Structures are given as C-alpha cells and as structure tokens.
Fold this sequence. Notes:
The chain is an alpha/beta fold. 44% of the residues lie in helices and 20% in strands.
Amino acid sequence: MMNYAHILRSYLKYRKNAVNAYGVHAPFLFNLLQDVIYQKSDPADFAVIEKIRRQLLKDNSLLRVRDFGAGSRADKGSSRKISKIAKYSAKPPRVAALIYRLVKHFQPRQILEIGTSFGVSTMYMSLAMPEANIVSMEGCPETLAVAKRNFQQAGMENIRLIEGNFDEILPAWLETVTELDFVFFDGNHLREPTLRYFEACLAKAQPQSVFIFDDIHWSEEMEAAWEEIKKHPKVKLTLDLYSIGIVFFRKELSKEDFVIRF
Ligand SMILES: C[S@@+](CC[C@H](N)C(=O)[O-])C[C@H]1O[C@@H](n2cnc3c(N)ncnc32)[C@H](O)[C@@H]1O
C-alpha cells in the first residue's frame, strides 16, 4: 500500500538537500554528472522500445499475476490488465534513459536485473550494450511471457530470462558467475530482502561494479534499506537521485553520500 504522506515528506527533504554539478568537487562525480547524469538522450534512440511501451499501455488484456509483494510470499494470483502493469511497473523514459546512459558509459560485461516485469528497463540496457550478457529475473510466468514477446519484437538477443522467486533463483544463479559489473535492483521493495539481495550480489562485485536501487524513498522500509546500504563498509560513493540510488565501490573514491538534483 502506497504511503503518500511518506512519499511527499521524503521528496521535500530530497529537494531541500539536492545539489547539482556545481555543488560537488570530486572529479569522478563532477564528470559523471556532466557526461552522464545531466546529458540529454535523443528520444529517437529509444523509438523501438517506446513503441512497445505504447502498445502495452493500450493493451487491456488480462494477465494472471503472481504477486510477490508481501515479503515474497506468492499468492494464488489475481487478474490485472497489461496496460495497468505497464503504467505502474515500467521505469518512465527519463529514468530508463539514465540507466541506458550509465550502461553506455561504464560498459559492463555482466548485467543483472532483479525484476523484469515486461522488460522495458531490460531493453534500455540491451540497447545501450548489445554485447553485454544481461540476465533478468522475474517470478510471474505470464508477465515474463510478455517480456519475451517484447524482446523478440525489438530484436534483442543478449537477454537471458530466469523465472522464479528471487529468494531461490538469485543465490543459485550467483553461484554460476564470477563477476557482476552492473546490477539493477527493481523488485521486492522491502528492507530485509533488498539487503539480502544486496549482500548476495556484493559477494560477486568488483571495485568497478555499479549497483542501482530503484525506489529508495518509496517507503520507510526502502529508506531503511538505503541507509544501511550507504553505511556498508564496502560501499564508497552513493548518489541519491530520489527515484533511484546509485552505488560505487571504487577504491580510489572516499566514502561519501550525495543527494543529487535530477
Ligand atoms: C517494478 S517491477 C520491474 C520493472 C522493470 N524493471 C522495468 O522498469 O521495466 C518488479 C517485478 O519484480 C517481480 N517480483 C517482485 N518480487 C519478486 C520475487 N520475490 N521473486 C520474483 N519476482 C518478484 C514482480 O513480479 C514485478 O514484475
């Protein structure tokens, strides 16, 4: 259940503290802001994906959705329109384009997305780096079938989908990889599982890895998770862009948290 009072409070606090490129002096961050975060993308680059989004937003067919919301306990499933899921689950173009620019900039070889839904954000990452290995995880089979169809329509071939509850498929898949370069955490927005998935991925991170957390201010649970992530001894620089949080582990950086106007 969305807590609007919490969202309003956290957004006002964010706006009060947020700085732009002129409020930072560290060269890594200044360059990242100038070259990536504040760069404008050309919407024409995403035409294929946004056409698919428009189709989804108009699609009133029903899916039987397996809901993992409450602490990953799957219920029997309820029916929801594709249009509604697309409206509320997929990252909006502005945030998706930022994820695209981050992938293009850092050139990660192994990308993991925790939470596929219809694969809108997955397609942005695939477009940014067609040579990357992208693994995306999703627990709802009918949702995943729509994502597969979208990847075919977009002609994207570097995405591997893994179906199941993150609690089980994430640790199992992590055992098969040596390094994780880029992780987008976008599912099961509760404190305990977010931190558990973070720790699990951290074991395969290297100093150049980039982790992105969605909806860090969406609820008090997510605020608490973000606070603990920032404090983690392996974490160096963190950026709070309100809708997402970005985490860096580079040894040359000092441990600092920035609230960035976006
Ligand atoms: C916010 S959506 C992902 C949106 C997608 N990244 C995008 O921007 O286009 C989160 C997805 O995570 C899935 N999910 C949530 N908790 C899960 C769990 N414990 N195991 C598997 N899937 C889960 C939901 O079914 C949902 O489709």
